[in-house]
Amino acid sequence: MAWQKVCPLEEIPLLGARVVAHEDGAIAVFRADGDTVFALRDACPHKGGPLSQGIVHGSGESARVTCPLHGWNVDLDSGHACAPDEGCVERYATKVEHAVVWLEV
């Protein structure tokens, strides 16, 4: 695994996402309230909907994204679907250094 520079933090909309191309599929990098950054595979565990187009809400460890297709909520910290839904999406480590977002791939 190696750290890949994504972009300056300010280029990811607050409560939004940016998509990073990867050989294994798209990765959505989310910016939650409080400038917390998370990264998940850009596919809902339900039917593969684009999580990057969903609504981000919450902050810190309680941040979630709502899939735009069927309304499933996915925990951004763990990648697990929130009850009563079940499933999980791959998550990636992120860090912010000097206002620049990094992704471990």
TrEMBL record:
<dbReference type="InterPro" id="IPR036922">
    <property type="entry name" value="Rieske_2Fe-2S_sf"/>
</dbReference>
<feature type="domain" description="Rieske">
    <location>
        <begin position="4"/>
        <end position="103"/>
    </location>
</feature>
<keyword id="KW-0001">2Fe-2S</keyword>
<keyword id="KW-0560">Oxidoreductase</keyword>
<keyword id="KW-0411">Iron-sulfur</keyword>
<dbReference type="InterPro" id="IPR012748">
    <property type="entry name" value="Rieske-like_NirD"/>
</dbReference>
<dbReference type="InterPro" id="IPR017941">
    <property type="entry name" value="Rieske_2Fe-2S"/>
</dbReference>
<protein>
    <submittedName>
        <fullName>Nitrite reductase small subunit NirD</fullName>
    </submittedName>
</protein>
<keyword id="KW-0534">Nitrate assimilation</keyword>
<keyword id="KW-0408">Iron</keyword>
<keyword id="KW-0479">Metal-binding</keyword>
<dbReference type="Pfam" id="PF13806">
    <property type="entry name" value="Rieske_2"/>
</dbReference>
